[in-house]
Specification:
The complex is a heterodimer of chains A (300) and B (295). By secondary structure, chain A is an all-alpha fold. Chain A is built from 11 helices and 2 strands; from the N terminus they run ααααββααααααα. In chain A, α1 crosses α9 and α6 crosses α8. Classes of the chains: A mainly alpha (300), B mainly alpha (295).
């Protein structure tokens, strides 16, 4: 009896901190995938339901290079980023450009590209599952802890938080200040107007699609530092990214970061206090509330 | 001419257990339920262009209701009721908005139900899977046959009704349909609910075929993916298209599953990509067009 009371008292303080910090770290990671998907959909009107599978691909690239060649996972951010970027360009040229050209209305493009991405998701999942089998894989990297202020922080979580924050900030600066970023936002706001002022929409679309996939692959590298990975982990992240997009509003990038952090806290709290199987309930609860109360998103 | 053909086909389907072996009966069953699944997906998503990525959710609901109901009649009624109730709720939340919200919401639906069910089974009942009540194989065949044909007749019947015409109008141009005084949200929700109820009942049929289920089998994403590929192959929005597509793909799947199990979904996925890219209007229209050109 006495032991259980003492344990409860000991747990109380770290649990609060754990929820506060763990939720934030997860939220920063989520905002990466949310921003990536929102960029893709905002600029190209392609709802990439294979987004989470590109995340999974990034995680497996990192795992492969770490286990086989001993490449530092942080270094493979460069590798996974490059592979993802070229994959994006390949997809745009091989599939989506022809789709957009052959369709008669914007609605048709949306429906067809959505189904194409759905097919892509099955293809990627099954290719990875043939190469790496469907058993979960994990590796140990930076698994120590730093003790600060009486509580222990796992190093890998701090790395994930730091990189997510850096990439999010870089994305914000890119979209806010550079010519490419301004062109991307212009295409989101006013596709016809953007063309009139001399922006090449095809180029901007290819770039946005690839950049979105790069963000997903990076998030995958970071996720592989925290969790075991498996070929079918992607759909969960796709749903998270889409929920963030709904919370943020289509095409709102600041909203994606806010939405990511909201979902991060919700998902971490459910995972920590109830069961990781019930995180989907939290996502759907948030989706329903947003769709009923603010269907245009929080930031629009 | 047409009537005699359908009468013969009808008689052949009813009498086939008399002269076909067990393997061909099971193959015929697969074709029949895929036809029903593809047609019910086409009935709503093909006609209105509101793409549902969550057929597996309703399919799984049907399977589980038979498992829980023990008795077949109770199980089928529960499947239809719960399928209708869930899809009505989903429709009410999402279908007054644009199609993207609907696609997003349905995408994770089967994953949601699967996870909740897994959690329920492991923490409350303490088992993951369930053994199914055994059903005579011929009874299973006749259940599948009845439900598939009933689904097709219901679709034909609804297509000519006010609801079917409203759905068609929404698919052509939703704004115009609204201007004509059609209550678009109501008809979309109703159409989706009917389509999903049919999927649930087909799931209930399949449950009679299986001896063991667990949430991963019942909510397999395959059931969301296959109807879409079948309809796109056959031709979107046409009943004959979904029937043709389902027959072709389910026969191809049968060959692929026996020979190249691992590559099955990769091949089907690539087929879908090629169709979307090169034959966006489906195979029937492609054949008709080439024939017309040759003439």
């Amino acid at each position: 009896m006495a032991i259980s009371i003492r344990r409860e008292k000991n747990m109380e303080f770290p649990l609060f901190f754990d929820l506060l910090i763990g939720g934030l770290i997860l939220g920063l990671l989520y905002s990466l995938i949310g921003a990536g998907l929102n960029l893709q959909y905002g600029v190209t009107k392609i709802l990439n339901v294979a987004h989470g599978d590109f995340l999974m691909l990034g995680a497996y690239i990192t795992y492969f290079f770490f286990v086989v060649f001993g490449v530092d996972p942080l270094l493979s951010l460069v590798i996974s980023g490059l592979i993802a970027f070229f994959l994006g360009i390949l997809l745009q040229i091989g599939i989506f450009r022809g789709l957009i050209g052959g369709a008669t209305s914007p609605g048709e493009v949306e429906v067809r590209s959505l189904l194409a991405c759905f097919a892509l998701s099955f293809i990627i999942q099954n290719i990875v599952s043939i190469i790496f089998t469907s058993n979960p894989k994990s590796y140990r990297y930076a698994s120590g802890t730093i003790i600060a202020g009486g509580t222990a922080f796992p190093v890998n979580r701090i790395i994930v938080a730091g990189i997510s924050l850096a990439v999010n900030s870089a994305l914000y600066l890119l979209l806010r200040f550079t010519r490419v970023g301004i062109a991307m936002r212009a295409v989101v706001e006013e596709p016809v107007g953007a063309r009139l002022v001399g922006i090449n929409p095809a180029k901007i679309q290819t770039l946005s699609l690839s950049l979105g996939i790069v963000l997903a692959a990076w998030a995958g590298t970071l996720a592989s530092l925290l969790y075991a990975i498996n070929p079918f982990m992607g759909s969960q992240y796709t749903l998270i990214a889409m929920a963030i997009m709904v919370v943020a509003g289509f095409g709102s990038f600041v909203g994606s970061i806010v939405g990511g952090i909201i979902l991060g806290y919700a998902s971490y709290a459910v995972m920590r206090l109830l069961s990781s199987s019930l995180t989907f309930v939290a996502f759907y609860a948030i989706l329903v509330v947003i769709l009923l109360c603010r269907p245009k998103g929080l930031m629009r | 001419m047409k009537i005699t053909f359908s009468t013969i086909a009808f008689a052949a389907l009813i009498l086939s257990p008399l002269f076909l072996g067990a393997y061909y009966i099971s193959l015929l069953m697969s074709v029949l339920y895929w036809v029903a699944l593809a047609s019910s997906w086409n009935f709503f998503s093909g006609t209105t262009k509101y793409v549902s990525l969550g057929s597996a959710a309703f399919f799984g609901v049907g399977v589980y209701m038979v498992a829980l109901g023990k008795d077949l009649v109770v199980g089928f009624s529960l499947a239809a009721l719960l399928g209708f109730a869930i899809s009505l709720a989903v429709g009410l939340v999402t279908l007054r908005l644009s199609g993207m919200y609907f696609a997003i919401f349905t995408f994770g639906l089967s994953e949601l139900l699967k996870n909740v069910l897994l959690w329920w089974e492991t923490t409350i009942t303490g088992t993951v899977g369930r053994w199914m009540p055994t059903v005579q194989p011929y009874l299973t065949y006749y259940i599948v046959l009845t439900v598939s044909l009933a689904t097709l007749f219901l679709i034909i019947f609804i297509r000519r009704s006010k609801l079917g015409l409203a759905l068609k109008a929404i698919g052509e141009c939703e704004d115009d349909a609204a201007h004509l005084g059609i209550n678009v949200s109501l008809y979309k929700t109703l159409g989706f609910a009917i389509s999903s109820t049919m999927v649930s009942v087909v799931g209930a049929c399949l449950a009679t075929r299986w001896t063991y289920i667990d949430p991963r089998i019942a909510f397999d994403p395959l059931y969301s993916f296959m109807p879409a590929i079948m309809v796109l192959l056959g031709g979107v929005g046409k009943l004959s298209g979904s029937i043709m597509g389902a027959i072709i793909i389910s026969l191809i799947s049968e060959i692929l599953l026996t020979g190249f199990r691992d590559y099955y979904l990769i091949i089907l996925g690539s087929v879908l990509l090629v169709i979307i890219r090169f034959l966006p209007n489906g195979i029937i229209e492609a054949i008709v067009k080439t024939r017309w050109l040759k003439r």
